[in-house]
Design a protein that fits this description.
Shape: elongated
CATH class of the largest domain: Mainly Beta
Strand order of the largest sheet: 1-2-5-14-11-8-9-10
Distance between the termini: 105 Å
CATH architecture of the largest domain: Sandwich
Radius of gyration: 43 Å
Structural class: mainly beta
CATH topology of the largest domain: Immunoglobulin-like
Length: 780
Amino acid sequence: MLKHKRLIGIVATLALCLSVLAPLAFAPVALASSTYTVLRTQTITTTGDTITSAKVQIDIPNVGALASDDVLTVSMPTDVVMPSAGTAAAPKVGFTCGANAVSYSFYGTAPVAAGAAPDILVEAPASLDKTTDLNALDDAANGTSWLAYDVGSTTLDIKILGGVAAAGAGRLIVYFNNVDVNTSFDGDIEVSLSGPSSSGFTAGKVAIAKYIGTNTGTYSVAKSIKSMGTNTITLDTLVTQETIKNSIQAGEVITYKLPSGFKWVSAGTATGFWDYSTRGCKFTAALTADDREMTVTAGTGANWPGTASAEGRIYISAAQIAVSDEGTAKKGDVTVSVESDLGNVTEQDFVIATYKDFGVVATAKTTKDVFAGQYDTELGTINIAEGVKGSLLADRNVTFTLPVGVKWDVENYTATNCYKKTVNKGTDWVVGASNFFDSTYRKLTLPVAASTTSASSIDFEKLRVVISPDFTGDLNVEVGGTAGITAATLKVATVYGPVSMTADTATNVVIGTQSQAIADVTVTEGLKEAMDTSLGDTVLFTLPDGVKFTALPTVTVTAGDVTLDDVDFGANKSEVAVTIKSSSTTPATIKLSNMKVTIDRTVPEGALELAVDAAGSTALQDACFDPTPATAPDISFSVDEMASVAVANVVTPAPGEQGRNASFYIGSTIMSVNGSNVIMDASPYIKAGRTYVPVRFLGDALGATTAWDAATQTVTLTKDDKTVVLVIGSKTAKVNGADVAMDVAPEITNGRTMLPARYVAEGLGYSVGWNAALQQVVIQ
């Protein structure tokens, strides 16, 4: 075998790109008034060869930009010549318009009828690419607006005359029909096109031929790459293209060999296309004893009638391959090596298929930035793609599960249109009418109708959801199911709280004292238009029970272009409503200042927070309301706060109120704290001889700060320099850092954390008394 053919193939590949697969266009740097496109090139292999089939297209966007006497000069390299004598009997250059007869001209002479075919012909076709787009340079008769003539043996001029149309696109095609190449070249044979600086023509170069110093060469390729598993597949058409004409000879046997682990199942049909294909040029495709090899044999005798004037090609259609040994066959590209017994076919490896595992993969193609607290929120796009056809199992399903705090928007969208699907390729397996949701509206199930007949890739776009007002951060969709899909956690959005809050240093405030200053607060939008007037116009700020505003705060815009309207009290003086007049185009901040509050004696010591009320802030969310109509699925959320910040620290009681005392009764939700009744959300009870009390109310009654760590199930109560730490289910308490054994353990009952009252109270320095007759616990 001729190993040098590999190098020939590399060189020939570029020639094929020029002559067969796609035309090349010359694109000048400046704003061009004319562009030049190679429609066909030719391969030259020896000195003395003739260019017979090269074509160049000249386009002028508006011929009205050309002036009389504008000239475009077309120059070939030295020793690339028009051989004719340049007479009426043997013209060098001819020109024609539409269906008119060919004329030719010498420089400075009028056009005359050609007596023989010209070496180079310049034509103005009747129309452009579309038959309705007329060519402005197609004259009714030759010579009225332009002509072409030779200037020596290597150059011709195209000259604009006085009859140019006022406007419209124009096109000329230059045919190089008989041009001799009398020297060798290193690659491209280029033609230069230029005009005077005052001309409307643009300068440029195009390659009309490629010089390759060899006599044979081919290039092989598959028209498209098929995906395959272990089953038999039918390949797309395989093409072996001559890069140099007459490379393939009569009787030549071309062998196509598969890699280990693969086999040919069917050789398909081989067809030759040459200029003499209608005269009996035959090829025969066949399998061999080695099932990795397929041969294509060129005809002989009457089935190979002679030489061709242009490059030919072989099409192999409907050939089939399969995996013969799964242990040997390698995943990835399946390549075929091609060679021939006479060595005229370039040795080459080319890809014909991709061997993949059965499998289905889900990926997040895009993500979105979105707000919490809104219906009709669009997430990013999820793609589900099969490795090979049949990877998705029929009568199974694919599921999309949202995190807690997010639901599919089935109020505004039905089960079949809370998303949009785009089938990129293959079988559409989604049964839209059968999609359904679970009772939480977090899980969407997509049944698979039937096994796919071609590997599918589907984008699920415009996924519509409702997001709870208190959900922030990454929004991940869990993709899974029973249809063979690989489970995946896909980030499809980043959720921003509509607003965040910061405060200046918190001040100390005293229980029972009026008109006390609290810290100024800055409210910042998560993204522009977070305070969205299309939803509503109110942002509602609230204080805890027992705390009221003494007067309305001062509210100002400190950044961005949001505009405000009224500031007023809400339903009571524990609320301030800020009305938004128009939304922002950049994230805005507003500041609440000069805030003073009155605190009654029921307020516990510790942090005092100002919050943005979820349900009342209509400009920030629309997902806290009941569904409409009442029969629609309930995809709303019940959330109290969208954001909060500590603005004060409630400290020692007002003068004259010394110490604390609290009492409560077994089975009653009423607790007395310093003489005032407090309603608890759970009743104390006795278990194992110990009294259990709701942790939050016990801590508040004792003036302690209570913290809950859900991850470790730990409660921490802190008052002054004393700390009590208890763990659910553990009989060991940690009091001021020391372990204390208890005879009972804290527990969670009906969703509330219940603590043994005596150990907590005594750990914080209180005395505990018990009135058995009244079933009353007294703490002092």
